[in-house]
């Protein structure tokens, strides 16, 4: 006899909903931050608001997950899922934080001149990071394990782009200090977002299969 | 360029120490058992190790108690019981007709679901086994009784009431008395058949603590329907269903990431 | 009639029935006591009967005690052993059912029939003569089914858990029975034996035919000698006595017999409670 709906299931579903909500917010935050960076627009007020929301949601996920563990003593798949959710919630909060950090550059430094050397590919990197975040959120929703391979590839690409851009910035002689700093910080934050996106993917794989993997 | 996806398995150093001391003790070899026409145990092939707690779990009627009772041949009492295959303890088949069943039961002790002390004094209960097997008398018997009661974490509570009737003790104390009674005949293996199911939570905690101590010197096999207890107390866990061993692995692995879907469904409460 | 009134009527009838039943024992005791107390004195209790209705009842008292003791010595172990067999070893088949049936039937068999069998077989055929031995053996036939029944019941009631615990410690079946089951069943077994003894002490028909004339003037010297007994004495004096003294002696002996019987019942109760407290 299979009993499908347990009290635990309700709780897990609720947390899952929260996570997906956070995913949407994260994607929106990244998109807005990149827009603000390339168009020199001040978007930090909106991103601060979204970042706070993400923080609150992550704490809520953590509270609910630990409460479910204390009350229902879940095992196996249920336990792995709850452990994963707590980690993912933290990663999601980080997305919001880094997006906010990107928008803060404009406030801190004031505006800067565009980098004139064509070797800099922050925009490509930005696209890739948006892509990896989107795939990760999709993975969180559908749990399709095949997405892992794509995510791993893109992560790899982003790493390469990061190193390449770092080199370019480091070797530039003509550029303004502010330009270098602004771009440097941004690629740094983008790289971190990509890292956290791969952490999320690893957590989901752990939740689904019980295997602990590293995508880097 | 595709990065390699590496797979990491966590290792618990404390657990490794425990397992390093464990040796094979009980081995089931193609073991089957029938009650009349009922095929209760099917093709059991597992090794149970010493100095760890092995838990056997599964839904009602899966055969876990029968499996336990096969180890000290308590199933022999039931007339329609027959079996095939071998059970070896320290390499010797216990179902061989030459085996002395009474010596076997001295070596393999059993604690039952409902505490069942004899209607005698506390002292006489613990001394029953040693007197029966003529192991000691007088002062030496006193020492054995005290040692067994200490081993069962009961001495402090009863040492001034040794002549009181065993039935005047609380449920948890009675169960520890039954454990002491088993320890008094110096077994090597201790079988516990749902020892806590008739006890309150505090008594249960005490018995669980005791099981963790007992594994230092004995082979402990526990049948339980309480998943959390199996997870808390044991190093190895077997999951049984309809007379078969579905999965038998380290407790940590079974409860975190079972290989069989049936096991996962049972553990997560999708069927009972 | 209204329901409440019906209820009341039923209650009254039941109370009345109970009252009548409960009064019987005290009435008998008091009646016998009144009528017999006059005969009780030292000479009566220690003297011997002479000239039929005079003298004392000492040989009769001793005779009854000997009869019951010997009967118990013969019947109790046999009964208890049979009970152990039936409860623990007997397989569940037709033979066992037959044995149980025979035992139950023996319990209800008319005592005069048993007495007659004792007379024909023990006294004549085995040439035991009318004697203490023949009487005791015949009485044990009467006692046997009661002992078996009570003992078997007491043994069966001992919880299975005790046996399992004992076997799990490496005891054999017999060791378990001896060290755990029998001690735990002791209250029931002893009660059964004492009840059997109570029945034996008052048994008239059997001793009439097998034990002795009843008016023996001497304590039995050996197992083969005839023995007096209180029930016989009472019967003879009550039916064939001519004098008031005779009747009073009969009542006196009845009182003694009654006292002995009540003592045994009380002892049975005390022993039973002692063991029950020990097992608790």
Number of strands of chain C: 2
Number of strands of chain B: 12
Helicity range of the residues of chain B?
Answer: 25-40%
Output the number of helix runs of chain B: 11
Instruction: Give the overall pLDDT of chain B as a whole number.
Output: 92
Task: Let me know the CATH homologous superfamily of chain C.
Answer: MetI-like
H-E string of chain B: EHEEEEHEEHEHHHHEHEHEEHH
CATH class of chain C: Mainly Alpha
Structural features:
heterotrimer; B: alpha/beta; 12 strands; 36% helix; C: 280 residues; mainly alpha; MetI-like fold; 11 helices; 78% helix; globular
Structural notes for this entry:
The complex is a heterotrimer of chains A (216), B (272) and C (280). Chain A is mainly α. Chain A has one domain: Phosphate transport system protein phou homolog 2, domain 2 (Methane Monooxygenase Hydroxylase, Chain G, domain 1, Up-down Bundle), CATH 1.20.58. Chain A is 81% helix and 1% strand. In chain A, helix 1 (7-38) runs antiparallel to helix 4 (122-142) and helix 5 packs antiparallel against helix 6. The longest helix of chain A has 34 residues, at 76-109. The model of chain A has no long low-confidence stretch (mean pLDDT 92). Chain B has helices at residues 13-20, 64-71, 101-107, 122-132, 138-151, 155-158, 171-183, 201-214, 227-233, 251-256, 261-267, and strands spanning 6-8, 24-35, 38-44, 47-49, 53-57, 81-89, 92-93, 108-111, 189-193, 219-223, 236-241, 244-250. Chain B has 272 residues and is α/β, with parallel strands linked by helices. Chain C has 280 residues and is mainly α. Chain C has a two-stranded antiparallel sheet. At the B-C interface, helix 3, helix 4 and helix 7 of B face helix 7 and helix 8 of C.
Which helices and strands occur, and which strands form pairs?
The complex is a heterotrimer of chains A (216), B (272) and C (280).
Chain A: H1 7-38, H2 44-72, H3 76-109, H4 122-142, H5 147-171, H6 177-209, E1 212-214
Helix pairs in contact in A: 1-2, 1-3, 1-4, 2-3, 3-6, 4-5, 4-6, 5-6
Chain B: E1 6-8, H1 13-20, E2 24-35, E3 38-44, E4 47-49, E5 53-57, H2 64-71, E6 81-89, E7 92-93, H3 101-107, E8 108-111, H4 122-132, H5 138-151, H6 155-158, H7 171-183, E9 189-193, H8 201-214, E10 219-223, H9 227-233, E11 236-241, E12 244-250, H10 251-256, H11 261-267
Parallel strand pairs in B: 5-10, 5-11, 8-9, 9-10
Antiparallel strand pairs in B: 2-3, 2-4, 2-6, 6-7, 11-12
Helix pairs in contact in B: 4-5, 4-7, 5-7, 7-8
Chain C: H1 3-37, H2 42-46, E1 49-50, E2 54-55, H3 58-89, H4 94-108, H5 111-125, H6 132-157, H7 160-168, H8 173-201, H9 205-210, H10 230-240, H11 244-279
Antiparallel strand pairs in C: 1-2
């Amino acid at each position: 006899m299979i009993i499908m709906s347990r009290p635990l299931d309700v709780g897990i579903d609720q947390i899952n909903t929260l996570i997906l909500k956070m995913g949407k917010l994260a994607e929106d935050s990244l998109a807005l931050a990149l827009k603000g960076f390339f168009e020199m627009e001040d978007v930090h007020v909106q991103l601060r608001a979204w970042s706070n929301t993400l923080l609150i949601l992550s704490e809520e996920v953590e509270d609910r997950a630990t409460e479910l563990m204390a009350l229902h003593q879940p095992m196996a798949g249920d336990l792995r899922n709850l452990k994963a959710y707590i980690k993912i919630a933290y990663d999601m909060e980080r997305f919001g934080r880094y997006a906010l950090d990107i928008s803060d550059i404009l406030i801190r430094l004031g505006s800067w001149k565009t980098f004139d050397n064509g070797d800099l590919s922050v925009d490509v990197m930005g696209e890739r990071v948006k892509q990896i975040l989107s795939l990760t959120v999709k993975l969180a929703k559908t749990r399709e394990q095949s997405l892992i391979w794509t995510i791993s590839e893109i992560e790899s690409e982003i790493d390469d782009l990061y190193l390449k851009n770092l080199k370019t910035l480091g070797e530039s002689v003509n550029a303004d200090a502010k330009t270098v700093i602004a771009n440097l910080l941004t690629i740094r934050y983008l790289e971190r977002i990509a890292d956290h996106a791969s952490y999320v993917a690893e957590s989901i794989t752990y939740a689904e299969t019980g295997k602990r993997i590293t995508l880097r | 360029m595709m990065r390699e996806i590496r797979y990491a398995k966590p290792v618990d150093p404390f657990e490794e120490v425990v397992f390093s001391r464990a040796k094979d003790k009980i081995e089931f070899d193609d073991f089957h058992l029938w009650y009349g026409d009922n095929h209760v145990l099917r093709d059991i092939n597992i090794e149970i190790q010493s100095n760890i707690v092995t838990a056997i779990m599964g839904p009602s009627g899966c055969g876990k108690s029968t499996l336990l009772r096969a180890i000290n041949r308590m199933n022999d009492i039931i007339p329609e019981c027959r079996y095939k295959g071998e059970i070896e303890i320290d390499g010797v088949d216990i179902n061989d007709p030459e085996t002395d069943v009474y010596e076997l039961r001295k070596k393999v002790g059993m604690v039952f679901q409902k505490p069942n002390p004899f209607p005698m004094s506390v002292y006489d209960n613990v001394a029953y086994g040693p007197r029966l097997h003529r192991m000691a008398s007088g002062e030496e018997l006193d020492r054995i009784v005290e040692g067994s009661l200490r081993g069962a974490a009961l001495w402090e509570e009863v040492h001034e009431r040794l002549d009181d009737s065993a039935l005047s003790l609380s449920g948890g104390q009675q169960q520890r008395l039954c454990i002491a009674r088993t320890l008094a005949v110096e077994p090597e293996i201790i079988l516990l058949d749902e020892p806590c199911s008739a006890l309150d939570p505090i008594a249960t905690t005490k018995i669980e603590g005791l099981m963790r101590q007992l594994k230092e010197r004995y082979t402990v096999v526990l049948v339980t329907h309480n998943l959390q207890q199996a997870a808390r107390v044991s190093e190895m866990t077997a999951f049984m269903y309809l007379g078969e061993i579905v999965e038998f692995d380290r407790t940590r692995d079974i409860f975190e990431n079972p290989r069989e879907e049936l096991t996962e469904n049972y553990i997560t409460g999708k069927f009972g | 009639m209204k329901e409440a009134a019906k209820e009341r009527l039923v209650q009254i009838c039941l109370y009345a029935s109970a009252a009548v039943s409960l009064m019987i024992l005290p009435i008998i005791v008091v009646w016998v006591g009144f009528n017999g107390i006059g005969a009780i004195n030292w000479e009566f209790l220690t003297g011997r009967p002479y000239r039929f209705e005079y003298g004392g009842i000492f040989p009769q008292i001793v005779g009854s005690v000997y009869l019951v003791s010997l009967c118990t010595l013969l019947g109790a172990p046999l009964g208890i052993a049979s009970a152990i067999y039936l409860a623990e070893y007997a397989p569940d088949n037709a033979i066992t059912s037959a044995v149980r049936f025979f035992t139950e039937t023996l319990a209800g068999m008319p005592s005069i029939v048993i007495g007659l069998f004792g007379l024909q077989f023990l006294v004549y055929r085995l040439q035991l003569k009318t004697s203490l031995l023949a009487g005791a053996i015949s009485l044990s036939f009467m006692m046997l089914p009661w002992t078996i029944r009570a003992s078997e019941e007491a043994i069966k009631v001992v919880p299975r858990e005790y046996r399992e615990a004992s076997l799990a410690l490496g005891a054999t079946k017999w060791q378990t029975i001896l060290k755990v089951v029998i001690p735990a069943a002791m209250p029931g077994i002893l009660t059964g034996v004492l009840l059997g003894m109570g029945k034996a002490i008052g048994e008239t028909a059997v001793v009439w035919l097998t034990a002795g004339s009843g008016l023996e003037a001497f304590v039995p010297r050996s197992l083969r000698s005839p023995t007096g007994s209180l029930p016989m004495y009472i019967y003879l004096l009550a039916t064939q006595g001519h004098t008031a003294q005779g009747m009073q002696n009969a009542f006196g002996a009845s009182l003694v017999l009654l006292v002995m019987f009540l003592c045994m019942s009380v002892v049975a109760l005390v022993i039973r409670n002692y063991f029950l407290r020990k097992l608790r």
